[in-house]
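>> Question from a student workshop board

For tomorrow's exercise we were told to take the sequence and the ligand below, predict the bound structure, and bring the output to class. My setup keeps failing. Could a helper post the expected result so I can at least see what it should look like? The ligand is guanosine-5'-diphosphate.
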Amino acid sequence: MPVFNEEARVGDAVKQALGVDYPCEIELVVVDDGSRDSTAEILGRLDDPRVRVIIHPRNQGKGAAIRTAAAEAGGDYMVILDADLEYDPKDIPRLLEPVLDGRATVVYGNRSFGSHSSFSFWYVMGNKAVTTAANVLFNCYLGDLETCFKLMPVSLYRSLGVRSRGFGMEAEVTGKLLRRGIRPYEVPISYRARTREEGKKITWKDGVEALWILGRERTRPRAGKR
Ligand SMILES: Nc1nc2c(ncn2[C@@H]2O[C@H](COP(=O)(O)OP(=O)(O)O)[C@@H](O)[C@H]2O)c(=O)[nH]1
Ligand SMILES: [Mg+2]
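>> Workshop helper replied:
Here is what the output should look like for this input. Compare the format with yours to find the bug.
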């Protein structure tokens, strides 16, 4: 769970994540990414043996927070869960199903954007544009590239060598998986976008960066692939 200045939501997000009935043992690795609000105090009060809190003294970005979590995670599989309550951790057992019954190794949660759950028209169009670009570049038919629910073996994530420190990691992870011929298995999930006032931070610039990263991953020479 990457966390940056989420004092209003991180307490509930952790509680919800721990309250789910998982079909396996879990560890919740929370990375406080240099928050300047009271996030660190809230995380410091957590008292559950399944939780591990790691602190970045300075803010580095969502991608960097996930890199830290993946380096420290002790389990076999990982899934990213944002701390902003836009996603519902109750969906995680459903993401695990295709893994547990041997149908998939990489599973993505696919958001269906509805009127009450979408941030804005242009936000949804931006998401669709980035996903469509990946589909054209890699000749596939993914439904939702920017989803935070990306479940895969921890060893696979580490082997991708993701460099993006910010939101570009979503495109980089997906481009690297597709480049290796790995097609994420998609499972529908629920989603409710927060508003700018509630803390939503992604902007159109992140969409442009995602397009650039996808192009880079598609054209990267195989010999130097990472
Ligand atoms: N914006 C932002 N989010 C970060 C950072 N580091 C970790 N995160 C976390 O990454 C997750 C996704 O970020 P968020 O701002 O919700 O993205 P958005 O909802 O798509 O605008 C949240 O749990 C953030 O707390 C960072 O440097 N910036
Ligand atoms: Mg979010």
